[in-house]
Each structure stands twice: as structure tokens, then as C-alpha cells.
């Protein structure tokens, strides 16, 4: 399935989950990105109908409970919706490594071109006077973001296009221009990296996305190269980054019986009247903050200040994102 079709199907699901009433094909076409067409042009409208029928069949094959009905007895044209109760999954127990994989995948959402399109579609529904339930899709858009370079570099790796970007390294004052044939983007120890062939150095190189400065520019034609067969991107990043020395120590206060993952990480654990004090070794304050935030109110950072400030910044980002959703959901 192409990326464009996948995005269209996801936006269709979000659209139909976000309203309690049945939406006609015309309303869906005016709302969901990817269905734009001229309804007065017979050929264009026929192409939309074929596309919509294929998408409906695809959703039903995937097990999506697509309902057909009318909003009132006066409606002649049938509409479509997805009942949240029928669509919701039961509780799924995950092993720690499985949960970690799901968490990494969720980080991709916001920069996969889906979140903005989904928000635009819901705004169109409200503009048309259709009641939208802002709670129906809160779980579909994570609050974690990735580096701005993520989207253009993953697109370039997918399309096999050469790129150029300015790259900053810690021991130099000014960034330098790099020309790269990207093979892929991977997450390693809480950081995103692009691995590929550095054209100026004629060698394989890894680049941390957070050190990319400014805009990533696609400079080559699609399909201009092929990555080495069976290349292991994670191994390249691991060799390049070297071993991690967790010389830092953070002390957190955990609710008794909670935060099992941090307890396994801790080198010290001491019970107290206010909770259990855990001492956590770390190398990167921001990475540790990302782990701590996932435990919500069950974990509070006592020291050092750099980890506490990193956690506060993460929580501010989450709060700001929730505020955006609240404003969008409250607009009529």
C-alpha cells in the first residue's frame, strides 16, 4: 500500500471516528485530504467514487467497523461512520520490549504528515456545522515530537534522493555543509540518526538529527542510488556513537509499588515516608527525562537540577499540546 493511500485511510478513520452522525460521500470528499475532486466533472467524480469504494473495502478487510446509515429519515443518500465503542481495542498486555517498540513508532506520527492533515479535516467538519467529538481521537496523536530534520530525511531515504544540510559538531563553532545519500533514519538510545553515504568524504557516516541546522534540501533525483544490501543501520550508529558512560546520578521519588521500569534501572532504592528514593545512573538528561515523564505523577525528580528542568520542559510541551487540542476541539 502506498504512503499516500495509507495517509488517506488514516485520515478517513479519524474523520469518521470524530463525529456521531453519518457523513455522506460528498461530505467525506470535502473533508478528508486525498479525496479532492470536481464533483461537476463526470470523469473526476467517477474516479473519486472508485477510490472511495476501494478504501471502504480496505477498511472492512482490516476489521474497521464501518457503519452505513442516514442522519435522519429525510436523508436520501446513505452516510458512513465508525462507532468508537466498536472500534476500540481491548486491553493488550505488552512485554517491556514490545511497549518500547510501540513508543518509538508513536513518535513518528506527528512528523508523518498525518497530524496536520487530520486537524485540517476536523476543522472542515466543524465549519460545515457537523458536531465533532474532540475526545474520540485523543489517543491517536502522541504528544512526543521528533527533530525537524526527521520528515525530509526519511522522505529522502525512501525516495533514494541525495540531500544537503548544515551540520553542527560540538568541537566546532560553525556548522559545515554535508552532502549525503541517506539510507535510513533510526532511533538509538533516545536520539534519532540518519545513516548514509557521505559524498564529500566517500565513506559511510552517521548524523544526529538534533545537530542538523536549518533546512534539509533534496538535491538529487529520485532513485539515484541504492543502499548496500542488508545494511544494518543500528550497528553503524552503535559503532559511531561508542559506549555510553552513565556518569550522572539522578534521585527520584517514586510511589511505592509503581515505576517498575525505573526500579530495574536504579542502582539504589531506599524506602521512606514520602515514597521510595531511587538513584538512577544516566548519560543524557533529556533522554532520562523522557523516560521519567512516562510514569506521570508516580515519579518526581529530586535532583539534579538539569534532569528536573528537562522533565519540566517535557511536561510543558505535553501541556501545550493538550491546550492546542482543547482549543481546536472547542472551536465551532
- Proportion of beta-strand residues: 15-25%
Which secondary-structure class do the elements indicate?
alpha+beta
- Biggest β-sheet: strands ordered side by side in the sheet: 6-5-4-3-7
Q: Quote the distance from N terminus to C terminus.
A: 35 Å
Radius of gyration: 24 Å
**Strands, count:** 11
Overall geometry comes to flat
Helix content: 25-40%
| Overall pLDDT metric | 79
Q: Unreliable stretches, pLDDT < 50, 5 or more residues?
A: 110-114, 135-144
Q: What's the main sheet like?
A: 5 strands, antiparallel
- Write the H/E string, N to C: HHHEEHHHHEEEEEHEHEEHEH
Per DSSP, the total helix count is: 11
Which features does this protein show?
332 residues, 4-stranded antiparallel β-sheet, 11 helices, 11 strands, flat, Proteasome accessory factor B, WCX_dom, WYL_dom, signal
Summarize the structure in words.
One of its GO terms (cellular component) is proteasome complex. Residues 248-319 form the WCX domain. InterPro entries: CBASS_pafABC_assoc_protein, WCX_dom, WYL_dom. The protein has eleven helices and eleven strands. It has helices at 3-17, 25-29, 42-61, 84-87, 96-107, 115-127, 150-159, 233-241, 260-265, 285-293, 305-330, and strands spanning 66-69, 79-82, 163-167, 176-188, 191-198, 203-208, 212-218, 248-254, 268-272, 275-282, 299-303. Helix 1 (3-17) crosses helix 6 (115-127). The longest helix is centred in the last third of the chain and has 26 residues, at 305-330. The model is unreliable at 110-114 and 135-144 (pLDDT under 50).
Amino acid at each position: 500500500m502506498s504512503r499516500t493511500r495509507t495517509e488517506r485511510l488514516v485520515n478517513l478513520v479519524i474523520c469518521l471516528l470524530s463525529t456521531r452522525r453519518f457523513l455522506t460521500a460528498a461530505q467525506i470528499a470535502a473533508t478528508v485530504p486525498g479525496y479532492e475532486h470536481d464533483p461537476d466533472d463526470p470523469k473526476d467524480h467517477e474516479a473519486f467514487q472508485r477510490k472511495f469504494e476501494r478504501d471502504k473495502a480496505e477498511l472492512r478487510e482490516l476489521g474497521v467497523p464501518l457503519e452505513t446509515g442516514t442522519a435522519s429519515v429525510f436523508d436520501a443518500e446513505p452516510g458512513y461512520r465508525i462507532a468508537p465503542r466498536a472500534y476500540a481495542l481491548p486491553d493488550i498486555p505488552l512485554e517491556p520490549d514490545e511497549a518500547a517498540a510501540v513508543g518509538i513508532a508513536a513518535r513518528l506520527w506527528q512528523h508523518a504528515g498525518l497530524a496536520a492533515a487530520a486537524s485540517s479535516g476536523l476543522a472542515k467538519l466543524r465549519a460545515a456545522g457537523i458536531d465533532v467529538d474532540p475526545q474520540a481521537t485523543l489517543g491517536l496523536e502522541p504528544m512526543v515530537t521528533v527533530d525537524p530534520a526527521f520528515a525530509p530525511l526519511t522522505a529522502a531515504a525512501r525516495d533514494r534522493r541525495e540531500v544537503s544540510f548544515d551540520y553542527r559538531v560540538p568541537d566546532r563553532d560553525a556548522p559545515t555543509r554535508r552532502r549525503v545519500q541517506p539510507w535510513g533514519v533510526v532511533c538509538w538510545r533516545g536520539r534519532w540518526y540518519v545513516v548514509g553515504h557521505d559524498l564529500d568524504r566517500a565513506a559511510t557516516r552517521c548524523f544526529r538529527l538534533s545537530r542538523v541546522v536549518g533546512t534539509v534540501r533534496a538535491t538529487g533525483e529520485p532513485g539515484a542510488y541504492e543502499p548496500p544490501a542488508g545494511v544494518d543501520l543500528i550497528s553503524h550508529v552503535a559503532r559511531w556513537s561508542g559506549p555510553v558512560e552513565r556518569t550522572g546520578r539522578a534521585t527520584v521519588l517514586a510511589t511505592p509499588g509503581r515505576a517498575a521500569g525505573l526500579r530495574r534501572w536504579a542502582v539504589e532504592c531506599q524506602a521512606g515516608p514520602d515514597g521510595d528514593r531511587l538513584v538512577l545512573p544516566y548519560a543524557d538528561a533529556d533522554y532520562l527525562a523522557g523516560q521519567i515523564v512516562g510514569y506521570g505523577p508516580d515519579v518526581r525528580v529530586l535532583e539534579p537540577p538539569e534532569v528536573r528542568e528537562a522533565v519540566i520542559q517535557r511536561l510543558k510541551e505535553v501541556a501545550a499540546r493538550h491546550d492546542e487540542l482543547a482549543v481546536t476541539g472547542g472551536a465551532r
